[in-house]
Amino acid sequence: MAPETVVQIRYCCISYEETILVSHQTEAENYTPMVHSIIRTLDTKGDKKLSCPVDSFQVHILIEDGIVYTCVTYLTNKHYHPFAFLESMKERFLQIPSLVSRAVTASENEFDRDFLPVIASIVYEYNIGRGDKVSKLRAQVEDVKQVMLENVEKVMERGERLDDLLSKTEDLESHMRLLSTPSKSGLDSGFYEMSRPTSTQDRLYMQKITAFIFGIYVFVSQ
Fold it and tell me: What distances in angstroms separate CA 83 from CA 7, 111, 214, one per listed residue?
């Protein structure tokens, strides 16, 4: 399924009545006169959501407790994304009580120094498709899928290593049984006497067995 096209935030601002307290835009177009002309006509009493087309643009507005949160996109009938952005911008703004309390008396663009970097980062996250909770969940799902794929590859590689260790261990055990089991026939007995390991050989074989067992222990413990 093709990825959903993200509605791009071109401009956003926070205002109190007609005063724009902070604003940010992603291109050279001057949106301020257009936004000013709209917020002058707004009744900021009561909480509400509005969306209105202006030429080739769409202006989305969220009003809460007298503070107006606005963003501009190109014309669209997908309103979820812009209003999710406005909600995020509102939540971040309300996390700074000093700005909220100053909003009533603040002058034009007074909050640019304090809050402009914040809304610029929110705009960036939304415009790359990672801003709202749904987009974040989708991104997290993709991250988890990638980790799972990597883990499957590691498990397959580990399985091959384990099979190799088991095979070598079985070969060694078979070899030890052959060398350590005496035969009842004279010929076989003679062969056994010639092939029986010396004490030095015994130590070497035990060291090999210990090394393989230790290797398996380390492998399983990973």
Answer: 11, 22, 60
